[in-house]
Specification:
Strand content of chain A: under 5%
Structural class of chain A: mainly alpha
Order of helices and strands of chain A: HHHHHHHHHHH
Oligomer: homotetramer
Largest sheet of chain A: none
Shape of chain A: elongated
Helix content of chain A: over 70%
Number of domains of chain A: 1
CATH class of chain A: Mainly Alpha
DNA sequence: TATGAATGAGACTTCATTCAT
DNA sequence: TATGAATGAAGTCTCATTCAT
């Protein structure tokens, strides 16, 4: 099985060296940024919601943009990080006994939980990434160094075992990722509406990817 | 075959009743909004790039937000509109002679061309839609009234003909759309890099969707 | 009897050498200035109401302030002017046969008609005079040169005839003017309300002034 | 005797909970508004005269119009308020021992002091009231609820005692108010000129009102 | 003569950031 | 450490006025 909820490790570590006020500011900022966007949110508003003085924000975060980065970066790391965790590595070693379907299921479950828990930050990231070159670089680096090598190994093993078609890894990855992101977004947007049966849609999505990629013999 | 490049009809109509300065302002605004985002762009900057006085912007667009809307709305309409064009309707009537693959190919080709031509506006839309309720409503309305009914008919016909699996139309649509969007984004981002062979990736994507949805006999 | 409606003489004279558009602009400006005030009225608004182009305003009136002056000045002149008209002079010569009451009645009737006819311009004048030094000078000059000497003569004659108390002319004038202005304002404000019986109030006001000024023997 | 200088009570209360900068801004605004009018005064100008940054104005007054209201409203209240003060009430109860002349004298003295002390604000009020509906309503309300009932009682008592003529109260009020206002304006305008002997003019005005209203038997 | 598009100065206002307390 | 009053740069927008047509 793939690791789940590893993300919290980071937080706890960090949280302990973080002041109570700092946390309250971050929480307030996340909430309002997600609701109104970075530029439409004033530091005054954040201060009020966090119950601190406006000046206090600048004790902990040099600038407003710094505050934004402090929100985005850990989430970015956590989005990518699971792929290099120990338990994931273990999963990799046990791969011979796992099917592609198990892999997909674990991946989807994990990312979906993550997306739901981090809905707000994800919304902030989507809005801001296109204009934050620094963050873009970070994202690329994380993807290239941390995520891609691991995932490539896993996918290659499924190709080797004949469970999926012989396609270039980047292509396989693109197809999986876009399908999964589509599912995750639908899930977050439609959550708690009568139109959405999550288990069913997850199952259908796994079927779709599997059928789409399996070596048709 | 599906209609291609119908979008331009709209522009030409509009362009003729539009003043030269108005066009220059729109062009400048699109370029800078896409580069730096709506809020990081000052009207002063737009005026300079458009070679007009700042006040002139407000002769044509009541407010800065109005300028944003004037950029987003036509593109939003054009994104959805093709689906209700005459030729599309004709295609629907000839469906007996078309395969699901033809349909996918036409859809992808059409949307890819559109995305490339409107790269910048699309970037602006993605950034702003989450915070512009008015635009969200417009988008929902267009989708529900204009696009969904037509597409649903086409997809249902493929299901009836046994070309694709018996799945709920919304599910089929979600899977196709997320896969196509993944392709389109990759195409726009990687265009002109050695990593990208568009025809090949298009073909692979079509194969993936087809295999993923076809009724396994 | 005092002269009534002499004011129109000026207009007719002027009106004939005035262009139709110029008149329409003046009319529009008077209406909007009175409603919203000089500064809250834009030339664009005036142009629209007058059915002319904005530029046309500046053909006839060098500046917006010039337009204001063109409205105020003739009314100012007309407010003062009657006192130096021929017929008034004649009235003066016939004074021996007139009572103070006749004089008051004529004065009040005349000024009341004038105020009602020029309600809007009077409102503009009241608002603007305190800040238009140039106009203040004009007003002072007119009062001092044109109005005061004539009125002083009349009042003196009533004093001489023992019809009113031996008070300094300026004091008498102040008392009469403030009482009459109070009547006129009430009349304009309350006109057409059930609270206002104009003839009765006029009569009472005349009684009040008469009693207040008459030499109590 | 009527209460005098009660107005200051209000100020002192307020002033203590008011910041030094806030007071400086108000003072500067009053001075410039009175001199040049509301619209001809820029916030930049006020800031300079008050020796604060332009932004500081908006910490204390949400908008420029808000600043105007903050100037006008207390004065409006103070103009009307004395009539409902305790000491005034006491005066009413002692009326049997007071003459109409005493009443007039107290009224005039009180209002004249007030006008002189608030010259500037009164000028601002006169200019702005015609265009500030909100203020008009406030003024009407204050007059109707606070001032009129008290004054009506007093005047009625003088009528009952036979000291003044049997006229409708509103008429009596109009005649007194317009005469007093005329005196007050003259006093403010001519103050410190050789043409003006205040005590004498006050005495004459009281005589005029008394004679004008007294039941002539 | 009349137009109205274009201008650009200047108005009001917001807000991230600083700093004395 | 925490505050929040004060700042002033920068932003959006208005509008009287000009001028080519």
């Amino acid at each position: 099985m793939l690791p789940i909820n590893l993300e919290e490790f980071f937080s706890e570590e960090k949280l302990q060296e973080m002041n109570e006020k700092e946390i309250k500011i971050l929480e307030a900022a996340i909430e309002i940024f997600a609701e109104k966007g970075f530029f439409s949110t004033s530091t005054n508003e954040i201060a009020k919601k966090a119950n601190v003085a406006e000046g206090t924000i600048f004790r902990y975060f040099k600038t407003k943009k710094d505050l934004l980065k402090s929100i985005i970066k850990p989430t970015l790391v956590k989005t990518i990080a699971p792929f290099e965790m120990d338990r994931f590595s273990k999963a990799v070693f046990h791969l011979e006994h796992e099917t592609f379907e198990d892999f997909l299921y674990a991946l989807i479950k994990n990312r979906m939980d993550f997306a739901k828990k981090n809905k707000e930050v994800v919304k902030i990231i989507i809005q801001e990434i296109p204009f934050q070159e620094e963050m873009q670089e970070e994202l690329k680096r994380l993807f290239k160094d941390k995520m891609y090598p691991k995932v490539a190994t896993v996918l290659q093993s499924f190709i080797d075992k004949g469970q999926i078609k012989e396609l270039p890894i980047p292509t396989v990855l693109r197809l999986i990722i876009s399908t999964v992101i589509g599912l995750v977004i639908s899930s977050v947007v439609l959550e708690n509406t009568p139109f959405w049966n999550e288990d069913q849609e997850t199952k259908r999505t796994i079927e779709y990817i599997k059928a789409g990629l399996e070596s048709g013999e």
